[in-house]
């Protein structure tokens, strides 16, 4: 076991996928983990499997998150909870905009605001923000609101380092590309179809890959802050250029 000073972690979006994998990995490191998600039954199973402490609540419920964060000294905060939608700024809905902003950005800001002051007082802590390559790159087919919220998480992660200057509180942003999770099934309403379309013919990342990335940053020597980590499948690249052809001249 590492001689790292952290004892307690809070992980949001913990009931499945990346969040559940992070909970398991931190528990392997001997850290007490408070797992937050809305799905009570899945959290109960995760608690049985890992020994984490489950809290069935929404990250959008600031009062509930405030009560939880004030009841424990949180050494590691993993802002992982997130949602996505199909469509773009033209065909999205007002409700979808509010939902994505509420969970992907506002909840992250609120929980960070609740937890970081205690870290500063103790001069000990680590904030891990799980963002997305969607926060750094524009690409066709991406949801505009999702991209914007993840860009906000990226900006928060960088500015937070400035806010914490002179303390031993660390900040890490982990920005994954395609990870094989249920998110894709929820997007199109059919997990089997999502597997066929997005995963069967591709060697995507697995949730454990992101969990191991979190562990690398958390268990690194205290003199070392892993500020930003972009994690992609070996066979996936970002970038590219789309160029629409000129319309035909009117007759």
From TrEMBL:
Q: Does the keyword Oxidoreductase apply?
A: yes
**Gene3D superfamilies, sorted:** NAD(P)-binding Rossmann-like Domain
Q: Reply yes or no: does the keyword Oxidoreductase apply.
A: yes
Query: What are the GO MF terms of this UniProt record?
Result: oxidoreductase activity, acting on the CH-OH group of donors, NAD or NADP as acceptor
Q: Which UniProt keywords apply?
A: Oxidoreductase
Entry-linked Pfam families? adh_short
| InterPro entries documented for this protein | NAD(P)-bd_dom_sf (IPR036291), SDR_fam (IPR002347)
Q: Which family does it belong to?
A: Belongs to the short-chain dehydrogenases/reductases (SDR) family.
Q: What PANTHER family would the database entry show?
A: DEHYDROGENASE/REDUCTASE SDR FAMILY MEMBER 11, DEHYDROGENASE_REDUCTASE SDR FAMILY MEMBER 11
**Name this polypeptide is given:** SDR family oxidoreductase
Tell me which species this is from: Gluconacetobacter tumulisoli
């Amino acid at each position: 076991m590492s001689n790292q000073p952290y004892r307690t972690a809070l992980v949001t979006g913990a009931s499945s996928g990346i969040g559940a994998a992070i909970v398991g990995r931190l528990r392997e490191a001997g850290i007490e983990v408070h797992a937050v998600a809305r799905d009570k039954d899945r959290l109960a199973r995760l608690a049985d499997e890992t020994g984490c402490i489950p809290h069935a609540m929404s990250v959008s419920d600031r009062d509930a998150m405030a009560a939880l964060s004030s009841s424990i000294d949180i050494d590691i905060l993993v802002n992982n909870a997130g949602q996505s939608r199909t469509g773009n700024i033209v065909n999205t809905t007002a409700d979808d905009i509010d939902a994505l902003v509420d969970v992907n950005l506002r909840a992250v800001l609120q929980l960070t605001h609740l937890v970081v002051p205690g870290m500063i007082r103790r001069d000990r802590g680590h904030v891990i923000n799980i963002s997305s390559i969607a926060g750094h790159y524009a690409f066709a087919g991406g949801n505009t609101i999702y991209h914007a919220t993840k860009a906000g998480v990226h900006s928060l992660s960088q500015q937070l380092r400035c806010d914490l200057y002179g303390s031993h509180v660390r900040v890490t942003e982990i920005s994954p590309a395609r990870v094989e999770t249920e998110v894709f099934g929820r997007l199109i309403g059919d997990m089997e179809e999502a597997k066929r379309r997005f995963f069967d013919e591709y060697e995507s990342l697995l949730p454990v890959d992101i969990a191991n990335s979190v562990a690398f940053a958390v268990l690194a020597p205290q003199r070392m802050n892993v500020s930003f980590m972009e994690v992609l499948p070996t066979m996936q690249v970002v970038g590219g250029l789309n160029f629409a052809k000129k319309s035909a001249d009117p007759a």
